[in-house]
Design a protein that fits this description.
The chain is an alpha+beta fold. It folds into 2 domains: 269 residues, Zn peptidases (Aminopeptidase); 115 residues, Alpha-Beta Plaits. Helices cover 31% and strands 23% of the residues. It is built from 10 helices and 19 strands. The strands form 5 sheets. It has a 6-stranded mixed sheet. It starts with a helix and ends with a helix.
Length: 393
């Protein structure tokens, strides 16, 4: 079994694990995490650590990884990356990794298979010298991060991860400690109207015209949100990502729906985001019904204190390896939402850049892959208990 981080990453990219995200038009031979999970199983068996398998609410889409157990006296660290990717959009070449210019290209290279390859590489090295491992270590490939988070929801409820002391996710942070991230609120808005033949539009009510007024006001609402700022996390944003309405070109539509994505700071509760927008629309003169769905996703912003022992552990390893130990914050979301919500303080640290995630030019710097494998091994071999004692002293 390969343990070189670049070879591992190439293998993982080659294995398709597209999340269909509710669609039925994605080639089923490319979807699901089963093939990646089988690869991780073989890897864990080859390096000789304990196999971890967690069932999720979706049959066949498990969490799979390995564990080095040191005993109850030691802190437990969960290092995880998601095994699913976004679609390749019919571009099969994205599943054929290539290397040039010091970069490894392919779907999932930076989101999130580069981080997973580095974690598995570190796990294999740690298994060669178990006495040097100073924490209970779990490395886990987690399913369904790109859509409904079934993997992380299982992680926070099942052993051996549910009682972990600290979590790290290998999302692309360009090898920086990310201890804070905006929250997210996602929901639908629907307008209704009255259908008539398009030759007599004044006898009907166009739900699309009504929605056009709503969308225009949401664009104005962004300017209001820009004033809601939380210095570590930045300011709030809102985006209309999809619009759906109408049945035919010659029919005045009686229904139109939009999907909204709002990124929030600690000054807003995710559950209140739709109510605040509704109040704004009323204030701006919208009198027709605008129906809000239940929240599809509502995760509050989070900021792990720089004084947390887990941040101290990461900072210690960064300084030892000549990396930047100063925490930073990001706007994008991850499974850290679910882990923090489940009681496991969790941060992000991984190779690659979010700027190229999900793109046709997705890549990870080979230098960062090697750096990440070394960093994750350093975490496994640095005693968090000793750092806690230092902070108390």
């Amino acid at each position: 079994m390969k343990t070189d981080v670049v070879a591992l990453c190439r293998d993982l990219i080659t294995i398709p694990s597209i999340n269909p995200m509710g669609r039925d038009d994605v080639d089923p031979s490319l979807t699901g995490e089963t093939r990646v999970n089988d690869y991780i199983r073989r890897f864990v068996k080859a390096v000789g650590v304990d196999l971890v398998v967690q069932q999720t609410d979706v049959p066949g889409r498990e969490n799979v990884g390995g564990m080095i157990a040191k005993g109850s006296r030691f802190r437990t660290l969960v290092l995880q990356c998601h095994t699913d990717t976004v679609d390749v959009g019919g571009k099969a070449s994205l599943l054929k990794p290539t290397v040039h210019g010091g970069r490894l290209y392919g779907r999932g290279a930076t989101d999130d298979k580069g981080g997973l390859a580095a974690m598995l590489t570190a796990l294999a090295e740690a298994a060669k010298h178990p006495l040097r491992v100073r924490n209970n270590v779990i490395v886990l490939g987690v399913s369904d991060e790109e859509y409904t988070w079934k993997g992380s929801l299982a992680l926070v409820k099942q052993s051996p991860t549910k009682d972990a002391d600290f979590g790290l996710i290998g999302e692309p942070t360009e090898c920086r400690i990310v201890n804070g991230f905006k929250g997210v609120a996602r929901w639908d808005l629907t307008t209704t109207g009255r259908t008539v033949h398009s030759s007599m539009p004044r006898k009907g009510v166009s739900a699309i015209y009504r929605m056009a007024r709503v969308v225009s006001l949401i664009e104005d609402y962004q300017r209001e949100l820009a004033g809601i700022c939380d210095p570590p996390l930045g300011c709030e944003t809102i985006s209309v990502g999809r619009i759906m309405g109408g049945t035919a070109v010659n029919v005045v539509p009686d229904r139109c729906t939009i999907e909204i994505d709002q990124r929030i700071t600690r000054k807003t509760r995710a559950a209140d985001a739709s109510k605040r927008l509704a109040a704004y629309l009323r204030k701006r003169g919208i009198r027709f019904p605008v129906i809000a769905s239940a929240m599809k996703d509502a995760e509050d912003a989070a900021l792990i204190a720089a004084t947390h022992p887990g941040i101290g552990l990461l900072g210690r390893v960064c300084r030892t390896q000549g990396l930047n130990p100063r925490p930073c914050q990001v706007a994008y979301g991850s499974d850290a939402f679910r882990m923090n919500g489940g009681g496991i303080p969790t941060i992000l640290w991984g190779p690659g850049s979010i700027a190229v995630a999900h793109s046709d030019d997705e890549y990870v710097e080979i230098r960062q892959l090697g750096q990440a494998a070394k960093f994750y091994l350093g975490l496994m071999q640095t005693d968090q208990r000793a750092i806690e004692k230092e902070r108390v002293a």
